[in-house]
Amino acid sequence: MSNEDFNKRLFKYFDDHQKDYIQRLGDAVRIPSVSAWPDHRSEVVRMVEWTKSLMEKLGVKVELADIGQQKLADGTKIKLPDVILGTYGNDKTKKNVLVYGHLDVQPAQVSDGWDTEPFVLTEKHGKLFGRGSTDDKGPVISWLNVIEAYQTLNEPFPVNVKFVLESMEEYGSDGLEDLLKSLKNTFLSDVDYVVISDSYWLGKEKPCLQYGLRGICYFFIDVESSTKDLHSGVFGGTVHEAMTDLITIMSTLVDDQGRILINGMYDDVAPLSPAEEQLYSKITFDVSTYCSEAGVKKTIQTEKEKILMHRWRYPSLSLHGIQGAFDGCGCKTVIPRHVIGKFSIRIVPNMKISTVEKLVENHVKQIMKTRNSPNKVSIKLEHGGNYWVADPNNPQYVAARKATVAVHGIEPDLTREGGSIPITLTFQEQTGKSVLLLPVGASDDGAHSQNEKFDISNYMNGMKVMSVYFQEVAKL
Amino acid sequence: MSNEDFNKRLFKYFDDHQKDYIQRLGDAVRIPSVSAWPDHRSEVVRMVEWTKSLMEKLGVKVELADIGQQKLADGTKIKLPDVILGTYGNDKTKKNVLVYGHLDVQPAQVSDGWDTEPFVLTEKHGKLFGRGSTDDKGPVISWLNVIEAYQTLNEPFPVNVKFVLESMEEYGSDGLEDLLKSLKNTFLSDVDYVVISDSYWLGKEKPCLQYGLRGICYFFIDVESSTKDLHSGVFGGTVHEAMTDLITIMSTLVDDQGRILINGMYDDVAPLSPAEEQLYSKITFDVSTYCSEAGVKKTIQTEKEKILMHRWRYPSLSLHGIQGAFDGCGCKTVIPRHVIGKFSIRIVPNMKISTVEKLVENHVKQIMKTRNSPNKVSIKLEHGGNYWVADPNNPQYVAARKATVAVHGIEPDLTREGGSIPITLTFQEQTGKSVLLLPVGASDDGAHSQNEKFDISNYMNGMKVMSVYFQEVAKL
């Protein structure tokens, strides 16, 4: 039977079983596996068990990997939920595709402003509302539904699949990086491709593949002026205030057009090649929709291409706030003794974290040299995460593009994300293989918001794309 | 009997009754009249009753003035404590001296770090520890002790005394200004002098009289960029961030030497006359003690005179903080949608609040003109309070200086305060007469801190100074 004939049967099978798929997703959403709530840890474990049981029913060999304990704010420790390592098929002649996903969800309660019970999957106008519906229970279950469909239709699966399903993603993926490093020469050693469906289309209509993420360097500027907070009436005018130094430093970092003012910060930014530039013009992206999503009247750039480039392929600097200063309502006449200014730089190819750190350090030192202040000023890279970028013309991407065309009838946009998904880079480093970000949800799914939803059409089409993607990868 | 002879008897009487005075202060401290705690309002009322009863025992005619209700944060209302209006003597040939003081205290609990029970007056090494001991129960009781001593010694009192004793001072003197305005043509109409003992010496050893207070203009800079907080990964680099505008504006307000950078801000500052300059050199003030009190290694100015002038007679600008930005621990990659920067300017003779407001408005407008930003920026004078300054050579001050010499054997320092006591100005405006700040506590009394105390020597000498002050005022 040709692929095309089989796919007709397969797609019909998916369509015929839509109700079952919705019910399965509903079963998963009903388990409130909120990783940020320690008192819900047993629900997270229940979600792991539920998934394990489904996988085993499908013949996936499952191993639960212990990743240690989580230290809570009050000092007590609780067990981190096990990571599911699944293996489906071990045919040496087939490609090994690793699927990553997560089973935990963001916190949610009706009082946050949900129109429905967040942990009851509710269908309205072709949309499935519920916490975790799109992030990331829907996509994870989709992968498993695909395996099930092949089995029912008695068709050999085109590839071997490995699963890494964690349950702390919404709380920083505690313990996962160490686990992946420890699996480098065992579970991960024979992986050919890694695919992750845990992100979203650029818009609501057109599918995309993502080939890049920005990294981040998060800085703390620490300024200490005295051993105690002072009264501005008594001491104002005679002491070197910490806030004056801090605000001055913070004001020298970025201009009104978003350009970073730190010397040398653009030196390592990859020049824009004509080929890359061409990618942008093809992308479907509506500037006014973007403005209304952000809730702004206008953006810094006006052209679509420029906006996308500044989200994805240029660095940016945001001033987040100040810890230790007066932040309440009303008037308080305090001179804060110790303030910490917080800002971060989104980094892009080919910036190096160590270089960024040095440039920022030098910049702050230079500024302080021009000031006559005895205050203790220090700058610290609190957190650094690298950018990630893939070649959107590499074979795995070509396979996914073909799969998208087969299902949606159009070429997917080739996009990036402005934020970070650190685990992407870890998978690339530990397998040494191509990683593909294959979103199936739409831009308005509201992953971390109230009324998170997953469109039924995206659920159904997602499974179809995943199926053809496996077939195309098998041909490589 | 000459004043000198009587004063010998009077001072001996004070010394002989030290134990009784300490016990009386202990009785007052035992009533936890915390005005900031609504659930303690009955204790505040009890303190009013206790004082009224003591005053009536001494023959002071007492009227309780209702000043209305206080609206709590939850919307409920509770009665404000009555203000005591007392009248002692009505001899038309005598001067009428109005004494202001307050019966409420700052919050206190052992867990704040007190070494003793805050509401049990505890004597250690000549110091009386307890909340309210120096602020302001000690001074208020001192005035009454003086009246009692004259009575016991059967000596006619040199002046008529009026009392205004409020019990909301530590919570913004709610209702008092309106009351004083309503009393302008009645209770206040025949007042000749106003005296307030509710502040502290400049140091621990040398008495002072205070003849000036700075005013304050507290500003909010409000910047709004979008309808929701944004993720810096997704939107950073493409939107005009509110924080960038705010931090830039805040960085243009004051330099590293405390000089205000707003055009015209020094135009109305009274020039320093040689006579005023001379006042500063005489003052006992130790720069290294000041530094250690502030917890700083060095001050902006190095000379004693310059430091005092910048605390008292020059304006200063302090940056207090930002509301609406990220102010917590750790890293949050937020682009805050709406931020409010807070700063205040301490104002001095002859600055006008309305001029200061206009200058700040113009400044912010000028800065924003140089920026290409669509964000909504507004500046608001949230609170304005005028400076106050008296002539330290006016007759009432001369009387208080003579009283200080008579008791302490030295001329008091003539000082100002850098902060504001708004009611001072109200008394001056409503009576049209001289107001004297006559501190009796020492600089290390810790009025609003843990372990507030009142030295027994200050308590005793304070009553002596008060007595001679009345005698000297009677001669004017």
List keywords for this structure.
homodimer, 476 residues, Aminopeptidase, Alpha-Beta Plaits, 6-stranded mixed β-sheet, 4-stranded antiparallel β-sheet, 22% strand
Give a short overview:
With 476 residues, chain A is an alpha+beta fold.
Q: Would you give an account of this structure?
A:
- The structure is a homodimer of 476-residue chains.
- Chain A has 2 domains: 3-214 and 387-475, Zn peptidases (Aminopeptidase, 3-Layer(aba) Sandwich), CATH 3.40.630.10; 215-270 and 313-385, 2-Layer Sandwich (Alpha-Beta Plaits).
- By secondary structure, the first copy, chain A, is α+β, with helices and mostly antiparallel strands.
- Chain A has helices at 3-16, 18-29, 41-57, 133-152, 176-182, 232-235, 242-251, 274-282, 287-294, 304-312, 353-369, 395-408, 422-431, 456-475; strands at 61-65, 69-71, 77-79, 83-88, 96-102, 122-124, 127-129, 160-166, 193-196, 208-213, 215-224, 230-231, 316-323, 334-335, 338-347, 376-385, 388-389, 413-417, 434-437, 453-455.
- In chain A, the strands form 6 sheets. Chain A has a 6-stranded mixed beta sheet with strand order 1-4-8-5-9-19, sandwiched between helices. In chain A, strands 13-15-11-16 form a 4-stranded antiparallel beta sheet.
- In chain A, α2 (18-29) packs across α4 (133-152).
- Chain A is globular, with a radius of gyration of 25 Å.
- Chains A and B meet through β12, α6, α7, α10 and β13 of A and β12, α6, α7, α10 and β13 of B.
